[in-house]
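Support reply, case 0932

Customer input (verbatim):
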Amino acid sequence: EIEKALILENNKNTTVKVVNPEKRIFSSSLQIIGTALANKEVLIHALEGGTVSSFSKDIGDLVKDGEVLAQLYNPQLSRELEINKASSIAAESNYLRFKTVFEKTPELTTIQEFERVKAFYLKENAKYKASMISDSLLTIRAPFKGFITKRNIELGAIVQSGVQNSNTQPLFELMDINKIRLSVALPETEVDNISLGTNANVSFSEITEKVYSTRVSRLSRALNPRTKTMNVQLDIDNTDLKISPGMYANVNLELESSEAKLSLPIKALLSIKGEYYIFIVKENIVSKLKVRKGLSNNKYFEVLSNLVDKSTTVIVEGKSIVKSGMKVNSIN
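Our regenerated output:
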């Protein structure tokens, strides 16, 4: 009966109130969930293989940049170091003797022989220096200041080189958490409304006494093709160590449209199962048009559609009694 009444009303040319979109700049806020990440995080592998002879740090320990975490022992490297050291000393002694002879009494030798002795010394010295570097790599050091979050070694365990073997287990996991990187997956529809420096307020359900004020620090500038979101990061000072990596955060981003955009009154919008529609009038005939909703306030919203421009006639009053194909009279 209601549908019949609408048809009869349609035959009488129903009157609706319409407007044309206007350009406005919006400011709004977006509530979104973020994940706390360490400022720096690294899995520490051994660059040379060996046996764990000692370790001085464990899970939860704060370590300084360059501080020793563990010591490995490799008898083969130790033996090579001693042999190469002795060869280098002998080669240097022989080279210095030839140098003295060549400079004072050059007729006793030839330039070719002197250069051969010099080259041999340089080669032996390079081998010795390489052995010293390899031996030094048996001392495992922290690459930066942070907390040990994992330890995967025990005394006497055999450790393989992480350079020569891609599937080796890391010795330690180290995190710098004095600063937290908060990672947010920003929806595609909001990408145009955010930039470096955008203000944000962050809170954690586990930290009830504090709200963190910060700004957008990094934008990935690329969308995830599967989720259609962009990675956005915000830096938060965490010198009090109250925030732990892995925590979820409530992020309130203060968004602002980058330029004036087409807008319509909120009352023109129809929401059905999470999708948005408007009714437009062209040559007195009603059409239902699906649109995307951008930023909004309590009066207006950004209308995002390639089919809407400043000349589009949109129903703001009477949309509940019209449907596509109806003929109507329009008033402003």
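We compared this against your earlier run and they match. Two observations from our side: The two ends are 30 Å apart (CA to CA). The CA atoms of residues 269 and 278 lie 5 Å apart. Please reopen the case if you see a mismatch on your end.
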